[in-house]
């Protein structure tokens, strides 16, 4: 054992001896009536210190809770900012445009005044253009509420792009159905009768399409991915299936 080790051992033993002596002195003070008030005062001060420590601990816990709430609020604000930034950078190109306002007086004047350059017989022979209602595009709130397992990797713009294609299909189909039979050639007339055969009681007065229409009027591929979009559109109340006669009709809602 080196001299350094002996010195450390000596210091350790002296500290222990001093601690024992101090403990004996304190023990003797407990039996000394003159020291009773001092000990009671020390006890009271220790009690006050413990109370302050408990108060500080409660305040620290409260501030930790407040800090967590502030962090959650900050994260929420950051997410809202990111969403707003995404919306600004990805404004859909298919948003409906507001029609220019026209006064009722102007409309009446235009309706009353005839066009002098047109022959008079065109007034009765012109048939009003048939309006074909399309499927409404999804808004971002609807897209965010679609279950993740259902939309998978599909994006907001991809789904709305399919909706645009489906609307074009319906317009092309019902453009043929709204034509007079006398103006059709043989090919168009065959299409007309084929479309009529697809109609059932549930689709009366409604717009619908079938898979053959997709292949006829668009470049969309009828595959698993497209049927995944159809599941989303049914979930968002944009269309529903009408089955019958070994044919699936996708009816717009």
From TrEMBL:
GO cellular component, one term: spindle microtubule
Alphabetical list of Pfam families matching this protein: SKA1
Example of a GO biological process term: cell division
Keyword annotations: Coiled coil
Region (Disordered): 89-127
InterPro entries with a match to the protein in the record: SKA1, SKA1_MBD_sf
Transmembrane stretches, start-end: none
Molecular-function annotations in GO: microtubule binding
Biased composition (Polar residues): 101-110
UniProt record similarity statement: Belongs to the SKA1 family.
This protein's name: SKA complex subunit 1
Provenance organism: Callorhinchus milii (Ghost shark)
Taxonomic path: Eukaryota, Metazoa, Chordata, Craniata, Vertebrata
Gene name per UniProt: ska1
